[in-house]
Amino acid sequence: MDDYKREWANSRDKLVMAVVGLGFPAELGEQIAKQLGSPKAMERMMSYLYNVKPRKAELIVDEMLAICSDVDRWHAKKESEAANARYNEILNYGFGAEDDM
Predict the structure, then answer these.
(1) Is the C or the N end of the chain the one with fewer CB within 10 Å?
(2) How does pLDDT run across 54-97, given as a tens digit for each residue?
(3) Is residue 100 classed as helix, strand or coil in its secondary structure?
(4) CA distance 73 to 95
(5) Which residue intervals of the chain are DSSP H helices?
(6) Pick from 63, 71, 70: nearest CA to 28
């Protein structure tokens, strides 16, 4: 098992324990971990669980969806920045020497 998988599994286990500690089934924690996908997102979810201590599963799922939405927005922003950088490079330097002939 590589380091990332180990980190992911460790974060998943901590998240499941946090969900179970609030009185919810472990399956809810496992599904939330699967949907969040990254250790950083799971850490953010655990912070929410530890600080807010929600009493309804709906609140946990709502926060999971908000975190997923933020992650998706971040990915879209990074893709846009990369495309914009490439576009500016083309404007400044052209497509390359063979295309300028």
Answers:
(1) C
(2) 999 999 999 999 999 999 999 999 999 999 999 999 999 988 75
(3) coil
(4) 30
(5) 3-21, 26-36, 39-52, 57-93
(6) 63
Which one, of 37, 2, 56, 23, lies nearest residue 12 by Cα?
Answer: 37
CA–CA dist 40, 60 (Å, integer): 17
**Contact (CB, 8 A) for 8 and 15:** no
In angstroms, rounded to a whole number, what is the distance separating the alpha carbons of residues 3 and 65? 27
Tell me the CA distances in angstroms from 67 to 18, 70, 83, 94, 96, one per residue in order.
17, 5, 24, 39, 41
Token pair, residue 84, equals: 């914009």
